[in-house]
């Protein structure tokens, strides 16, 4: 909006051993390895929309045709007309080995709508129908995994930048926040050096863990960037970030990536105990 840089955003909420995360900006493929690491043996892709693969009517190809085009083996479970038009569901569900997910999301194409959940490798057609019914009847703010005993992670990506996920793994939220920091720094370096991409190290888990322990809602923006140093300002918010909420006039703290040495640091004068939630 108004040509301002898109901010990093992160929000986490825990209830009864389930962690719900909303975040941005990250593409599904940029988080695929994190999802695979906590998933059960298989992954069910339940929704997929893209402009990268279109049919003769300029509509997204069926997910199974996209998987075939990419050479990703999977089982296809058609849902039928009863699921047509249901938000978060495609006309078919793809079930694949979890280790094939990064191969599906290989960076050569972009899904603007993607939802997936982990399932057992021997999931039956009846169980997939029950899963689709559950997904189609769960309210947006209602925890999903609380109704699915065997699933460990559910992911939904929108516009290839917004992230919403639930997990039973307490380490995954911090890993997502760590990845977001690295993605923001890497994209800034790539733009500065006019290269397609830039490889940067992720912060150690201590950084994200302390941020989450301090406040549940964060917004981040670039403060300064050179080829040697990338500085990101972070501010705690009273509520989850929404589009149009600008970065506060003053950051709570700054984190700096030393590109040459591959290290991240926070000035000791800023940490800990100096963070408070700033209004937007």
Q: Shape from CA axes?
A: globular
Widest sheet, order of strands: 4-5-3-6-7-8-2-1-9-10-11-12
DSSP strand count: 12
The helix-strand sequence is EEHEHEEHEHEEHHEEEE
Q: Whole-number radius of gyration?
A: 20 Å
Low-confidence stretches: 274-280
Q: Helix fraction?
A: 10-25%
Largest sheet: 12 strands, antiparallel
Overview of the molecule:
This protein is an alpha+beta fold. It has helices spanning 28-38, 63-70, 101-104, 125-137, 172-193, 205-214, and strands at 8-15, 18-24, 42-50, 75-78, 92-97, 111-119, 153-158, 162-167, 217-225, 229-236, 253-258, 263-265. A 12-stranded antiparallel beta sheet has the order 4-5-3-6-7-8-2-1-9-10-11-12, with helices on both faces. Strand 11 (253-258) and strand 12 (263-265) form a beta hairpin. Helix 1 (28-38) runs antiparallel to helix 5 (172-193) and helix 5 packs across helix 6. The radius of gyration is 20 Å and the shape is globular. The protein starts with 7 loop residues before the first strand and ends in a 15-residue tail after the last strand.
Question: How would you concisely characterize the structure shown here?
Answer:
This protein has 280 residues and is α+β, with helices and mostly antiparallel strands.
